[in-house]
Write a structure and sequence with these properties.
mainly alpha; single chain; three-stranded mixed sheet; transmembrane; 5% strand; 225 residues
Length: 225
């Protein structure tokens, strides 16, 4: 029974976070900013004010597909945010520009996360192979290797947290100091950014819980030797 509850929890936590961000975004996507600027215009304004004239703002595809690409120096905004005038779109656009500012300033956690990408990808793709081999053959060494590989992915998830929170903090500072949002809009924008942040918190929490479960299994395997 506890096994079923565990898997329900790790499945429901991310679903809850995704539902929260979608509902919050949907609510504040109906609230227009008093500035009347589109997400593209806001992103461009913040970039220019910070001297990042080489960073492009382009229209992406899909719903909430917004991201910053450090390789191409591009802020990609989903269609609704790119063309829209909402508080939600402003918050998301500013958040992605926050990543561009981090990149320009060589923000330590962002650099560390970029360096971890290949290691985390290998760990995520390969860890379960060694974990399954170790579990079925009772080879603790193989199982431990799987845990170590998975731990690389967990570290990546944890490092992502300060990167995302810092980008949101920069976003709020920029849109408030530049007068892009005013009064009640500031509180609405914070709600959008906080909801988005919870998706990363949920992903990190699930990753840590799963890693701890595997460590407990490993210690149990050792006790049987």
């Amino acid at each position: 029974m506890s096994f079923i509850i565990y898997f329900l929890l790790i499945a429901l936590i991310p679903i809850w976070a995704q539902m929260r961000v979608k509902s919050t975004f949907k609510k504040y996507s109906r609230v227009a900013t008093t500035s009347g600027m589109t997400g593209r215009e806001m992103a461009r304004k913040i970039l220019d004010e910070n001297g990042l004239f080489d960073v492009k703002v382009v229209e992406g595809r899909g719903f909430l597909s917004d991201h910053y690409n450090p390789m191409s120096k591009t802020v990609a905004l989903s269609p609704d945010n790119y063309h829209g005038h909402s508080v939600a779109g402003a918050a998301v656009a500013a958040h992605e520009v926050g990543h561009a500012i981090q990149d320009a300033e060589s923000y330590a956690f962002l650099r560390f996360r970029h360096a971890l990408v290949p290691v985390a990808n290998i760990g995520s793709n390969m860890s379960w192979i060694f974990l399954l081999i170790g579990m079925f053959t009772q080879m603790t060494g193989m199982f431990l290797l799987g845990i170590i590989l998975m731990a690389a992915g967990v570290v990546f998830q944890l490092i992502t947290l300060p990167v995302e929170f810092n980008a949101s903090s920069r976003a709020m500072n920029q849109i408030v100091s530049l007068g892009l949002i005013r009064n009640e809009e500031e509180r609405h924008a914070k709600k959008v950014l906080n909801a988005a942040a919870m998706t990363y918190v949920a992903a990190a929490a699930v990753a840590v819980i799963e890693l701890l479960r595997l460590v407990l299994i490993f210690t149990g395997m050792q006790g049987e030797d």
